[in-house]
Every structure is written in structure tokens, then in C-alpha cells.
Amino acid sequence: MLIAKEEIEAIKHAHDLKEVVQSYGIKLTRKGTNYVACCPFHEEKKPSFTVNPKTNLYHCFGCNQGGDVIGFVSKKEGIGFREAMQKLGGNGNGNGNGAKGKPKPVKQLSPSPLTAVVPSISRTRLLNRVVSFYHQSFCEDNRAMQYLTTRGITDNSIFAGFQVGYSNGTLPNTVAGDGEVRQALQDIGILNDKGNEMFYGSVVFPVLDDNKDCVGLYGRRINDGDTAHLYLPGPRKGVWNWQAAKRSKSIIITESIIDALTLYNAGFKDVIPCYGVNGLTEDHLALFERYRSKEIYICFDRDDPGEQGATGIKEQLRGKGIEAYIVSLPQIDTDDKTDINVFFRSTTDAAAIFEQILKEANPKASIRSDKVIKREQRCYEKTESGFIVQYEQRRYEIRGITKDNIKLKVTIKAVTSAYGKSQRFHLDTVDLYSNRSRVLFAKACASLFSETEEIVTEDITRLIELCEAWQPEQQAKTPVQKMTNAEEDEALEFLKDPYLFNRILSDFETIGLTGEDSNKLMGYLSATSRKLDEPLSVLIQSRSAAGKSTLQDAIIMLIPTEDYIKYTRLTGQALFYKEEDSLVHKLLAIEEEHGARDASYSIRNIQSSKYLSIAATGKDPVTGKLKTEEYRVKGPVALMITTTEVELDYETSNRFITLTIDESKEMTERILQKQRESDTLEGLIRKADTERITRRHHNAQRLLRPLSVINHYASYLTFPAESLRARRDHKKYLGLIKAIAFIHQYQREIKSVNHNGEAFQYIEVTLEDIEKANKLAGEVLGRTLDELSPPSRMLLKMIKEMVETRCGEMKVDPKEYRFSRKDIRQWSRWSDFQIKCHIRQLEDLEYLYSVTGKKGKEYVYELLYAGGGEDGRAFLMGLTTVEQLKEKMPYRKRHNSSKGEHHERLDNSHSKKLAEIQPAACDVRLS
Description:
The protein is α/β, with parallel strands linked by helices. It contains 33 helices and 31 strands.
């Protein structure tokens, strides 16, 4: 016997679903206008079971179960509809939560918002207006776009094409406080009972019908901690991207809109999302039937609900006569859960690999990514002077390839090709290593091909790789030229010159680089240190047009071409994919720090760890299966980078010795004079000498052997240790000493020692090496008194006089003498206020050290400054002088180093000359 409809409605209205659910011991938590709990019908950790007290309905976003109070009791008890009615006190007087024979009186529930009638306002028109408002908010408030960008969805055409929106809480401000529009928004579910937006803080995706009218909304929270997925109340209506079924007979279906957007962004346009793992609706099935879809690829998350849902939908589709294939994503995360978005963000060349995964599900799969097709190389033909390559309809004819480590010049004819016939073209000579040249060429080609600059830029990247790999047909790779006996003798004479530093500086002047003597020596030593196990790295800093690139190019010119690599830009993972030994003991020069910002992590890592390694997912060329491949690049490598930035990333910059270019008027005048001289006869002669000087330096660098450098004086050296950064700066100071000794190896006795049957060759550091290092360190690693204000400098001078006088009277070392502000006040006759003001600067800049003292107690100080800088030159406090080393070293060690002392006597006569060549106005500091 049928149950009367009136009786069913009476039972639904007589029982509050929230109370019925709680009667089963299920704890409900209020979330906005709804109540949530962990679903009683399947296992889960995060609540996805929702009860709507306004409609008296429930729904689980995890298992897609939902219904009214009768359906809940029926499913929970495992009984039929009639028995559930009886349990709730309907016909048959069952013992449910209601009273026997008489329903429990409760408040009359309002009708479903989807069936509520708004007399004068069209629901569709109102939703369309909401979609437009949210899309405008998306364009004006960048938070939602930033969220999608972090998820790898970067194609701006998607945002406009699908009218992606953002709910930032401003919608209620545009609606009058009372009135039927606000009421209609509440009835639809855009606003809750309190008048707030239900989708607040969410990216909003409208679901449109074939009339481009909105029939539903899906919201995705951009912040963690809230309910992630939001829909309008009631059953799910419509299909997102329904045009895919109209366009193609082969469709990919995903678990969510975010996954579908990820595929769409990667070029897989024929994709349609479900409403969760069990969210294939009648609208989906009707769409597939209407457009006669032949095959559907189910790509859900790699977890138990996803796999179970995919299996269920596969059977459901096959029941409708549609071939269905389950696409299994490879495992990426350690928690054994991988979705499409995670896969595409974690995998290199993900689109091409995903095509292969589709082939694994169905070998006859024809779905392709538009972006992969556009990037595919359709032909490659080698010519006498270059090659021809084509990507889709974009054809490039390359001629006249001229390459070295600094430039890669080619002549490119870009041609639009259709049906095998050449049409319009653009012809240009391009330096592919020049960013400006590449950008201009990309703009011209993008207009020619009617493509985005992104696609053309990727073409250019491939052209760079092809041009770098290209070799003339009848020419093999040119080996390093062998030195003649005369060239070797010339290089050895250069390396054995006791005035080697002066020779280096003189050569720099000849090739056209004037001034900046400390910078030139430091840069040259840094480049030479590439052959050591702990090479130095240099950062050249200045304003634009000051000459930083000129200094870098001059140093690189004197290094053999096989020993350096120069880039104008480095991408984030560029270094990870170089050949394993391609950077070992090389100089890596980068033209501008801004162009290597993405690669700052890899640069820091190869400096600290002396190697790089990365694990990436790739395809086995034999089996075709995905596998993890490890790429490893060895160091050590010396780095030389230029920058115009004032403030640099601390983590990166403190690994470099920073050289700042002299920007004074005097230096500008010297440079201008040098430029004028280049047009004279003397300049012509210098230009002719440049090739000879370059060849001599190349040969000298090749003669330097990879010897170890031993510093017997190391335990007697000192370095200022007041700041934490001294831990890195000290290594640079020791590295500078070793680099100076290393370049003088042909002026040293080569010694050897046997250890465990293995012989080690080495040279020893001399006192003269340390003296030169101290002078350079004072300029490069040091500071000037100009950083102090005049009163602070005067106070420092008086404190130094006081300490020297008192230590002389007490016969104690200045390092052991302690003094207070009272002592300073009595000596200087300054007021306490003046001393407090200026002593703080002396402390901050580490001229004084506060031994003890805090608020309410006496401050006691130690003087760190030991003199220097009075003439305006830079100095470095705390270094041990050669005279102090001689006093500290035992007589036996000094006696055993007789040969080293001989070299020191040779160069001591030159020390005054070396001091004179230090720049008078060169602000050089360590970052």
C-alpha cells in the first residue's frame, strides 16, 4: 500500500534533522549557518558531512550521500523507507525519535531556496550579475590570482574565458540593507542569514549553461583551516566546460574544478570536472549522451576514495554504452595521495608525460595537449651554414652561427608555414646570449605567428640549445692549442717575476682598464682561485654605467676560454641539469645578479657543498615507464657576478667578496682620458698588444698546477671575531692568502709528503704572501673611518690616546685594559650625554666592545680599534702583521723557512711600490 504524500511531508516537517543526527551520538559543530561532522557512512579525518537546518537536508562531500531525515534514518539503520517512516512515528506507530502516534511539534521549515519564488527578480539574472561582480573583484584584488598562480594555473585567458571570480566580502555593501534583492540573494544562498557572503575568501567558478547563464557556483577557499569546497545549497546543476563534449568525442573527467583547470592550463582543453568522487550527475550523463561521447578518461586522486569513485563511475558510464578508462597518476607525495595539480607542479615536462599516462590507460588514446603540439619539433634539417627547424607552423631558418662563451650570434629567418608554402617572414641577426636581443626578436615573431610571446620565447630557448650543439659539417671540436716553446718560456717568465702583481696591473692598463687596482687584483686572484679546492667568489657592485661589466669582462679576457662559462641569465634549475663535471674548477660569470635571482639557491649550494643534486621524474627510454632520475653537478666553482642592486639577499651576498666600483669624479676623468687615448697612435699600439697580453695570461693560467697550499702561519694569525659573519669572512681571508701563494707557485719550492702510500705535492705560504693579503684585505675586506660621524671619530681618537697612555703607565697590553664611561669623561672632558650619544656608534660599528654592563649597572669597555684609516684609506682591524708573526713564530720555524724569507726580502723592496698602487678613493667592502 502506498504511503500518502501528505504523511511523508508531515514526517519530514515534524522532525528536526539536526536533533535526529545528534540522537545517534554524532557530534555536530556549527559552521556558518550549517552544522558539520565526520561522515557516519564512511571513514574520514576531516569533517565533510553537512546538515542544513534551513532546508532540513544533509549532504556529504566525501561520499556524495545526501537526503532528508527519512533517508538518513534509512541509511543509518540499514532499513527500508517504510521502516524508517515507522521509526520516525509515521504509519505503523514506530518507536523513532518522534512521539508515538503523534508527530513531535517543531517549527515549520521554510521551503528549499532553490524552489523559492522571487516574484519580481529573475534568479538567473541575479546569478549572472553576481558572477560579473565576483569576476571584477578577481581582476581588482590579486589574492585569488596569486593563489591560482601558486597552484600552477597561470594562463590569463582561462580567468577571463571562464569568468573566474573572487568573493572578498564587498558584495553586501553594494546591496541595500533591506529589500527583495538582498532577500533573493539569501534565498539563493549567496548570502547567509546574517547577510554575509557564503563564498567569502574563495575563488569562485561559475557553472554556465549553453545560453551562458549561470546555473551554479563552486567556491575554493584560498586559506587553510576553513571548509575547502563550497557550493550553492541544493542539488548540483550544470556542467563546467560543457563545450568540451561538443568539441570532442574523447573527454577527461576530473575530481574537481581545480584539477580540470590544471589540465586546461597545460593544454588539455577537453576536460570536464565532477562534483567529487561520486559527483557524476544526471546533467553529465545527459551531456555525454547529447553529444555522443565515445570514450571518457577518469583521472581522480590517487587515494582510496578516488580509486573507488573512479571504479564506480567507470561502471556507470559503461552502462550507458560509453567506453571508460581509469587514468592512474604516479605516486608523488609520501602520504600516497597525488592529485592532478600536485602531479603537474612536481613533474618536469608534465604535459608530455601525462600524454604517455593516457596512452598507458588506452594505447589508442588520441587526446593531446595543445601546448605540447605547439612545442613539438616537426622537422630538423642541417644545412651547410646552420639548420632549419619547425614547431607547428613556426619555421626558423638559422644561418651564420658565431659562438663563444660570451656571445652567440645567428641570423634567423622566421617564416609562417601553411600547407607547405612559405608566407610572411621576419629576418634578423640576433645575439641569443643577449636578453634585450631575444626580447625584441620574440616580440616580432609573436606578431608574425599570431602567438603568445611565451610560446615564441620557448622556441628561442630551444634554438639556443640547438645552436650551442651545432658543429660545422666538416669541423670537429677545436682542441686547446698547444703552446710553442717560446710561448711557454714567456708564460714562465711572467709567473716567476717577483713583481708579478705589478705586471698584472700593468697588463690591465694596457688592455684599457684604468684605476681600480685593488678590484683588479682581487678579481684576478678570485678567477685564479678556481683551481683551488676552496675558490673565492666575487660580487661587483655599482650603479648602472659605472663600469662593473667592464671590470668583469677585462678579468674574463685574461682567463682561458675553456676555463670559464658566462651567462646573461640563469633560470632556477639551469645549473642542476649541466654535465656532471662541466663546472669543476671553472669560473662561472653571470652578467647581472637580477638575472640569476631564481638560481640563488643553487648558487649558494654549490658554493657551500661543492656539488648540486636534484631528483626529478622522467620517462625510461627503454621501458617507457616513469622513474626517478638523479642529476648531480660537481664543484668547486669560482663565481663572479655583477649587480646594480643596493640591498642584496643576505644569504647569497655574504658568500661573496663584494667589490664596489669607484664612482668619484677623479676616476671618471681617468676613464674619459683613457677613452680619448684609445683613438690615438698610442691607443692603436695598445690594441695590438692586447692579443699578445691575452695569450700570455692564458698560457700562464694553463701552466698553474693543481698544487695544495699549506699555511704554517695559520695558527698564529688573528681575525676580528666580534660578529657572527666573521665565520665566513675569516675563510675568505685565508682563501685570499692561499690564492696569492698559489699564483706564485713558480717562485716556491714544491714539496711532497707521503701518506698511506700516496704522495701529496704542496707549496708553502710565506710571510710576504700574508703581507700582500693583509694589504688587499684592508682594502677589500676592510672599512674606512668615513663611516663615523666627525664627533664619533674625535671621541675614538681620544679613547685611543687614553688607552695607550694608561697602558704605557701600567705596562699592560691594550687588549687587557678595561675602562668605563667615567674614565672617558675624565680624560676627554666631554659631558656624559655627549659620550652616550657617540659611544653607541662606536659600539655598533665594532670599534669598541662592551665587556659588561646593563641598565642600572656600570658599562665596562674594551678598545678593539688599534689604529689605521686616518689617511682616509680602508683598513681591517684585528689582523696579525708580519712583524707580529715574526715575534710569535719559533726561531726554528723561521730558520727552516729560509727560502721563503729570501722571497720576502726580494719583494720587501717592492712593498712600497705595491702600497702606492692602492686606489686613493675606492669604497671596497665585504658583504
